[in-house]
Specification:
The chain has 193 residues and is mainly α. The protein contains 6 helices and 6 strands; from the N terminus they run αββαααββαββα. Helix content is 46%, strand content 11%. The strands form 3 sheets. A two-stranded antiparallel sheet has the order 1-2. It binds zinc ion. This is ABATE domain-containing protein.
């Protein structure tokens, strides 16, 4: 499986591994091997090793704590104490080690525990700092991805312009078109607008 990394933050990309949360949720971390694949694609570790079912369950719990805390940040609300505690505890473990191998090449070492600790650390930095004010929810219909709005004008609306932005534009175009037809300019054929 190819995972998306469009949030401009590792912790938010991790939260996005549960998609379409409010309509038809799909957990992209369905199997332990999915978590290993995510960790590798996220560039966190070269060899995540074998992931146990228990580790996957824990990863999902941390992911949901991150998601809820991000939503709280986006709304300017308080984070749940239990979520903060989980993110904090998880971050205390050993982290992924990134070591220079040669010019242009690094080695990233760590199993799933180290990967989770690193994600939780990054989440802690985000939620504990000023960037928490940049957390946004994608404006795409049904899309529940979160991202950081680092645009200069502070007007980023989409998790991904291609995935959600162009789809929304196409829908708006269809609405305008059908609206024009429905409002019944009698002379206008479907291709005349
Ligand atoms: Zn989106």
């Amino acid at each position: 499986m190819d995972f998306f990394f469009v949030s401009d933050h590792l912790a938010l990309d991790f939260a996005a591994t549960l998609t379409w949360r409010t309509t038809h949720p799909i957990d992209l971390l369905a199997e332990p091997t999915d978590l290993a694949a995510w960790a590798t694609q996220a560039g966190l570790t070269d060899h995540p090793g074998r992931v146990s079912r228990a580790a996957l369950d824990r990863a999902r719990q941390v992911r949901e704590a991150i998601y809820r805390t991000a939503v709280a940040a986006e709304r300017g609300a308080d984070a749940a104490v239990a979520d903060v505690r989980l993110i904090r505890e998880c971050a205390r473990g050993p982290q992924v080690v990134v070591a220079l191998k040669s010019l242009g090449e690094v080695e990233r070492r760590g199993g799933v525990d180290e990967v989770l600790a690193t994600v939780a650390t990054r989440a802690g930095e985000l939620f504990g700092g000023d960037d928490r004010h940049l957390v946004r929810v994608c404006a795409g219909a049904e899309c529940t991805r979160l991202f950081l709005d680092r645009s200069r004008a502070g007007n980023r609306r989409w998790c991904d312009k291609l995935a959600c932005g162009s789809r929304a534009n196409a829908a708006a175009y269809r609405r305008r078109k059908s609206g024009a037809l429905a409002s019944g300019s009698a002379q206008a054929g479907p291709y005349d607008t």
